[in-house]
């Protein structure tokens, strides 16, 4: 099958929302890794996309130079709110992670396994008589929410149908319907937290969110607590649904792997790890280049220096090595937001 000619222009005119990128995802990433370590985009304020392992890794680990505080979306819509703790840097990010992490450790998840199995069985029973199902709608989009809203962020059971519906619309519905659905979930969670704030503590995740953490030596604002709850909901549900759907897709596409897993469940952990790598829920996370604010160089010299720094020998990996180490190419975008410099 001939690859689209549009792939050749991705390096100089990259657009993550381009249908060619979505419809030719693997080919597009392979092309970028092989031919363009740093792709350029003119969309929105403009950004560069780092496409090779070592560059992505260095950006992700160097938060002082490549900050998350301006948000992870590449070209956010007007009125977009920050999602926490992703859209923050240490020490604020660290403070939140420290109190949230205990609820998402391997041990904490292991304690929910039997509940997950029970809910999975109940969902399967609902469509087993039909002999078929729409996997995402009938199973993958429901199971994570049952676990989250009954055991991690417990909300009244009577509220679940409406909450599930709006979360589904925001995550998978028509573009025009997503913002209103997000707004309804925002209002719901704000009211939910307000009600719990006035109730007796239960020692759960909600109490931890309500307690908050310090931000610049002061108690964090109320809105930040709501944004944390939003992240637990949207960050936990849509991403889990995506990973589960990717796994089933691979098993349906490669029945020999499915048969191998049925014959040896010891391989299940590896299968889960590999499918999450292959079908990563988030493939482009924006960072803002803070170093540009500390330079007096011109746009031309700064960009040339950045490109030289990223592509000199020994600093990047060939396609084969990149694919071997990550199992799938990853893109990482960097924005420059100084007053006089927009890439």
Please tell me how large the radius of gyration is: 22 Å
User: Into which percent range does the helicity of residues fall?
Assistant: 40-55%
CATH topology: Cytochrome p450
- For the terminal residues, how far apart are their CA atoms? 34 Å
Structural class call reads alpha+beta
**Discrete helix count:** 16
* Average pLDDT over all residues: 81
User: What letter string, H or E per element, gives the SSE order?
Assistant: HHEEHEHHHHHHHHEEHHHEHHE
Name the CATH superfamily classification. Answer: Cytochrome P450
Shape: globular
Q: In the CATH hierarchy, what is the architecture at level 2?
A: Orthogonal Bundle
Low-confidence stretches: 294-332, 335-343
Instruction: Kindly report the oligomeric state of this protein.
Output: single chain
């Amino acid at each position: 099958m001939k690859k689209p000619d549009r792939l050749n222009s991705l390096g100089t005119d990259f657009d993550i929302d381009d249908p060619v990128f979505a419809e030719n995802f693997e080919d597009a990433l392979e092309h970028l890794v092989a031919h363009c370590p740093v792709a350029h985009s003119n969309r929105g304020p403009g950004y560069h996309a780092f496409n090779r392992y070592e560059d992505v890794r260095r950006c992700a680990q160097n938060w002082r130079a490549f900050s998350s505080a301006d948000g992870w979306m590449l070209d956010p819509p007007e009125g977009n709110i920050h999602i926490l703790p992703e859209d923050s840097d240490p020490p604020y990010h660290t403070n939140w992670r420290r109190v949230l992490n205990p609820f998402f450790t391997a041990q904490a998840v292991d304690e929910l396994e039997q509940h997950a199995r029970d809910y999975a069985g109940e969902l399967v029973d609902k469509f087993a008589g039909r002999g078929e199902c729409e996997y995402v709608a009938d199973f993958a989009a429901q199971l994570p929410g049952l676990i989250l809203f009954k055991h991690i962020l417990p909300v009244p059971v009577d509220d679940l149908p409406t909450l599930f519906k709006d979360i589904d619309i925001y995550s998978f519905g028509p573009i025009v319907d997503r913002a209103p659905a997000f707004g309804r979930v925002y209002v719901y969670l704000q009211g939910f937290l307000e009600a719990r704030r006035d109730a007796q503590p239960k020692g759960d995740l909600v109490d931890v969110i309500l307690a908050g953490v310090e931000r610049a030596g002061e108690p964090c604002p109320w809105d930040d607590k709501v944004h944390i709850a939003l992240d637990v909901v949207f960050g936990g549900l849509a991403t889990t649904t995506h990973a589960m759907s990717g796994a089933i897709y691979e098993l349906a596409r490669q029945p020999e792997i499915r048969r191998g897993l049925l014959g040896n469940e010891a391989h299940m952990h590896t299968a889960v790890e590999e499918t999450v790598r292959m079908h990563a829920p988030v493939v482009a996370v924006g960072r803002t280049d803070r170093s540009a604010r500390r330079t007096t160089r011109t746009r031309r010299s700064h960009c040339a220096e950045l490109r030289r720094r990223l592509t000199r020998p020994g600093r990047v990996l060939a396609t084969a090595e990149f694919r071997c180490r990550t199992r799938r190419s990853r893109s990482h975008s960097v924005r420059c937001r100084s007053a006089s410099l927009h890439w």
